[in-house]
Each structure stands twice: as C-alpha cells, then as structure tokens.
Amino acid sequence: MDTHITESDAQPSSAARTTTVQWTGIVLYIVIAFALSWALWLGLGALGVPFTIRVTIGMFGPALSAVIVRLLRHEGFADAGLRLGVRGQRGTWRIYLAAYLLPPLLIAASIALVLLVGYQHWALNANMHALISASLKTIPAGFTVNQLILISLISQTVLAFTLGIPFNMIFTFGEEFGWRGYLLPRLAPLGGLPAAIITGVIWGLWHAPLIILNGYNYPGHPWLGVLMMVVFTTALSCVFAWLRFRSGSVWPSTLAHAAINAQGGFGALALTHADSLFSAPIGLLGLLPMIAFVVWLALTGRLSAQPKIVDASQK
Length: 315
Known about the structure:
Elements: H1 14-17, H2 23-46, H3 51-58, H4 61-72, H5 92-117, H6 124-135, H7 145-161, H8 164-187, H9 192-206, H10 208-214, H11 224-247, H12 251-263, H13 266-270, H14 288-299
C-alpha cells in the first residue's frame, strides 16, 4: 500500500524544504489550538450545552488555529495538503484505499485479540437485545426481537461503512487540517517518526479536559485516561502520518479518522464490558495490533519524511 514519490513526481513546498524546525509558529499554533478548544469545551459546558455538541464544536479548534497562525505569520496554505494528491503521482488511490480499509481491519484485529486472550467475550446478541429493549418500549407488530436486532445491526454496519464516513469527515477535518495539515509538516525536519510521535502526544493531551471532567473514552480514569489517550493518539498519529507523508494530502488521514470514529463503537457493541484502560479497541490491550502495525511502518521506513512532505498544490 506504500507509494514512493520520486523527485520527478513533485517538488517539495517551501515548508517541506525547510531543514530547521520553526518553533515560534509551532508553539503559537499549539497555544491557540488548546486555548480555543478548551475554552469552548469548558465554556459551553458551564452553559449547559450537551456534551456531544460541545465536543463537536471544539474539534474545530486545531483547524481554526492553523488558519490563524498561517495568516499571522504570512505562511500561506501551499503546504496544507488541501488537494487530493500530488499531480503526476501514481498510485495515490492506494493510499485512499488504505485509509478506508485500515481502520476496520485494525478494529477487527483488536476485537480478535481480546477474545483470543479471554479478556473480553463475545456479547453481540446480548448487547443488541439490551439496546433494542432500551430504545423500544414495545416490539412493533410483525417483528421479533431477533429480527429487529438483525435489521439494526445491518443498518448500523452499512451506515458505518458508507454515509457515516463522509459525515464524520466534516468534523475530523477540523482536527486533521490542524494536526496533519500544520503541526506535522512543521515538525517533519526532526524526522518522520519523531514528528509523528510528538504530534500524537500533543494531540492526546489536547483531549485532557474531556477525559478529566467528563470521562471521555476512559470513564472512571480521569488521570490514567489522559495517559492512555496519549498512547492511543500517538499510535494513531503514526498511522495518519504515514498517510500524510505518502499522499501529500490531509484527506487520507481525514478519511481514516472519520472511519475510526464511525466504526469504533463496534467494540463496545460486540464485546462484554471491561476496564476501558485495557479493552478493545482503544485500551492498552486492544491497541496492540495498531502498535504492531506502527512498529512495522517504522522498521520498513514508511514513516520517513523522505521524500519530504510534498505540496499537493504544486503544478
């Protein structure tokens, strides 16, 4: 699924050609991104805005910060990766295919692992039965509970692999235009792997108020949950960095991020409840397949920033 970009395929942008890290822009970007999102999450929470709505609004903090910093520092948008790919580059479609297929494969591997070691057990029918019972006071005439479970499962699966992805992309772009469209390219002179790791750590810490105050993703673990989120986002950041480096575009990582969001709930739907710090797909045990994939990416040189992040807007 890896696509090599030769010097003849595209020329690096001015940001990509930079051999030193521009720390002023990076620090300014991080401060503004955190300030915007945290202010929205905390302020809207104090006003009683429902959790899902305020989380969604705050997701646009990284993108807005990237726009503000680019304008303040007159950096332009040439290296933001807004085009679908680099003109003349062959095999870009493979990166998009990888972005679409990799999330469900990693989630499936995560579920398989926790089942294999016996940490969690298969409970799809029981969980679906509880879900149907909670949402419907009475069973519609002509249907059995099992029929409703099958209809609901099919509809949720189809939605998660079709319309759910482009819908989620509206919101994941709010993060990806910032993390992979601005921060990762600015850190790339450090090397692809260090840049991906640093981006992932910052990305994970950005979630801290949601985890500490609202138990986001790791209920009952306000502080260890932040640490676990950093592990999760660091692994995911490496996967997304690979997509960004090999495509020259933020859209493959936006697509993969949307797929993760659309399909991540299958773990909770299919398995027995377990401690969120270890369960599939984003607990420590559940993340082992993704971590193994990241190790493979690193060992095979696929996380190298060479060729440097290309400007997909170059003619």
